Amino acid sequence: MKELLKAAALFALLLAAIPMLTFIKPRDGVSPPLTAEAAGLSNSARSAAAKKTTAPDTEADTSEAVPTVNTDEPSKPADTDISDTLKVLDFTSGQVMELSLRDYVIGAVLAEMPASYHEEALKAQAVAARTYAVRQREKQRLSPDPELMGADISNDSTKYQAYFTPEQAKAFYGSGYEVYLEKASAAVDATGSDVLVYEGEPIVAAFHSTSGGKTESAEVVWGSPVDYLVPVDSSEDEKSPSYLEENTFTEAELKARLETALEGTDFSGSPENWLDIKERSVSGTVTKMTAGGAELSGADFRRIFSLRSANFTVEYSEKSGTFSVTTKGSGHGVGMSQYGANAMANGGSDYREILLHYYGGAEIADMNDIAY
Fold it and tell me: How far apart are CA 308 and CA 350, in angstroms?
């Protein structure tokens, strides 16, 4: 009898654990960043905020003309209930804010994408932000993170999706706040309860500022393949002001940074041989290189030198004794390119077309119809 009870108890535990598999961490043990750039290299909106500028659009000179509105919008009835609440930890004060999901998504859109972008791009961002929030909320209900103190999510943009409180949005957008608030709110309301799903579950709605012309796979960046996070064309990103950036480092500076960050380096040889790019992904991300004989990834090199992306080339000038590192794109490159989304919108694509292009294989569903 005791053996039967033990077996029954074990079976019950296994059944309880099954729902959590949806939100299991990838094999490297680190949950993939779902934000534009969880490593601290944020998108244009947060970069501009850090510089205390009121210019809402540092990425592109986009038109503010009202676009043609599709006749089948909004995608959900006007009275759709999207009043679900979300608990947000303010990491600066330690207080937990309880917000409507609608208000949270509006604040996330204002923080994550230039509000001067096309309305259809803002709608795509709204769906990605809502998907992120719904997935994160369910993850916390299944396996609470003690650091969140009972909240579903935090406004710490180095770890989670960025979010502007109304006060922060007013400070950032200045005199344009009311206009951009109305624009972001309209984008959120027009998408109703839309979320992105794959096999019935909310997806990892990763996004970034600008790709290197083709988006990157989750497997290259985070070590785990994800069916809907694979390389897709985003060649319009080549027109972005953030597409190319050149960084110059002296021999002494480059050597000092690498010796501090890496073990087993040897810079006794000619400087032109210090750096050697060995492998790249099909999207251009440096996946393997050596520095002073020590092996590292492009992502490691990016962090050491605070580069915009891990898609870069290196040139050494013996005449000046400097290294020029030129990056393509801005961000990790996985999922939706925000600049690319805006370009697609300006080209006539609606938010559904944008999302299904960047998250191939995913579907758009009503979050109220998802069975957790």
Answer: 28
What would you report as the CA-atom Rg of the chain, rounded to the nearest whole angstrom? Answer: 22
Strand, coil or helix: what is 337? strand
Pairing of strands 153-154, 85-89: parallel
**7: part of which helix (H) or strand (E)?**
helix 2-17
Burial group, residue 165, by CB count within 10 angstroms (0-12, 13-18, 19+): middle
Give just the sign of the alpha carbon dihedral 366, 357, 359, 198: positive
Q: What are 22-54's pLDDT values in tens digits?
A: 232 222 222 344 443 333 323 333 333 333 222
Bridge-based pairing of strands 336-337 and 322-328 is: unpaired
Which tens digits make up the pLDDT trace of 204-234? Answer: 999 999 999 999 999 999 999 999 999 999 9
Question: Could you tell me which residues come within 8 angstroms of residue 314 by beta carbon, excluding any fewer than 6 positions away?
Answer: 275, 277, 323, 324, 325
For 339, residues 6+ apart whose C-beta sits below 8 A from its C-beta are 59, 60, 209, 210, 211, 236, 237, 240, 242
Instruction: Report whether pLDDT(62) > 90.
Output: no
Q: Assign 3-state DSSP to the chain and report helix, strand, coil percentages, each to 5.
A: 40, 20, 45
Residue 316 burial (CB count, 10 A): 18
Counting every residue, how long is the chain?
Answer: 372
Please say whether the beta carbons of 211 and 230 come within 8 A: no
Helix segments in 209-278, DSSP class H = 218-222, 251-261
Instruction: Give the residue from 209, 171, 45 showing the smallest Cα distance to 112.
Output: 45
Helix (H) or strand (E) holding 275: strand 275-280
Query: What DSSP assignment string belongs to 96-108?
Result: EEEEEHHHHHHHH
